[in-house]
Design goal:
Elements: H1 2-27, E1 32-36, E2 40-44, H2 48-83, H3 93-104, H4 108-111, H5 118-125, H6 139-149, H7 157-160, H8 166-177, H9 183-187, H10 192-218, H11 225-228
Antiparallel strand pairs: 1-2
Length: 231
């Protein structure tokens, strides 16, 4: 999970820098310098249409943080199981269902070469991280994923609003990615103040979910309770 958290913090820093720049442009504490004829500098405020585009782009950055962090975290769970040589018989029932479904989705040609000890290798043989989420992740998807794997989806509502803003981020991201709306359309009706509030809540929400997954791994909650009691 340390690699996951490092990647999360790196992306958060990128987002914070972008929002700081965007806020400055919109509030006109930061202005653009344009060179005109003879290289004479001309200081100007941001164009209103460009501001809409830049605000819409913020949804792409936030969605990138959400999906990458959750994909990396689920991959970390499987890395932990593989690294600790956890057997299929010892994992909790929720994980057994996931492993069997992953395995069912693969052809024998895809996986036979990766299996030498089926009780161990079956756990990761059918797992493919690139198939996780794929543009569809919001709060409901994270809650469903938490229940599937057995980690907590509880967060501090006063700081995260339990991720309720993830739906609008996913919707706007998909509208942009699929061309359903222009950047100007997506960015026109949201203020920089509202965007900053959404950013803070989303970063806090994903950060707390990652903390929950880290606790899940440290406490070996991926194991069946009968195995945990013998540790």
């Amino acid at each position: 999970m340390q690699t996951v958290l490092l990647d999360f913090n790196t992306r958060v820093q990128e987002i914070n820098e972008y929002f700081l720049f965007l806020e400055g442009l919109i509030n006109e504490t930061t202005k653009l310098v344009v060179l005109v004829d003879g290289n004479e500098p001309n200081i100007k405020a941001i164009d209103s249409e460009l501001a809409k585009t830049l605000k819409a782009n913020a949804f792409l950055l936030l969605y990138n943080l959400i999906e990458s962090s959750m994909r990396n975290a689920i991959e970390a769970i499987f890395d932990e199981l593989k690294g600790k040589k956890v057997s299929f018989n010892s994992v909790r029932i929720e994980l057994k269902k996931i492993v069997l479904q992953n395995f069912k989705n693969r052809s024998p040609e895809d996986i036979h070469a990766r299996i030498t000890d089926i009780s161990l290798d079956i756990i990761t043989a059918g797992f493919k991280s690139r198939e996780l989420f794929s543009g569809n992740i919001d709060r409901d998807e994270i809650t469903k994923t938490a229940r599937k794997y057995g980690f907590s989806f509880e967060t501090d509502y006063s700081k995260t609003r339990h991720g309720e803003n993830l739906y609008s981020i996913m919707r706007n991201r998909n509208d942009l990615a699929h061309g359903n709306k222009s950047f100007s359309e997506v960015g026109k009706d949201i203020s920089i103040g509202d965007l900053l509030k959404i950013k803070e809540e989303v970063i806090e929400y994903i950060g707390q979910i990652l903390e929950n997954i880290e606790k899940y791994l440290n406490a070996k909650e991926y194991l069946d309770s009968s195995f945990i009691s013998t540790l």
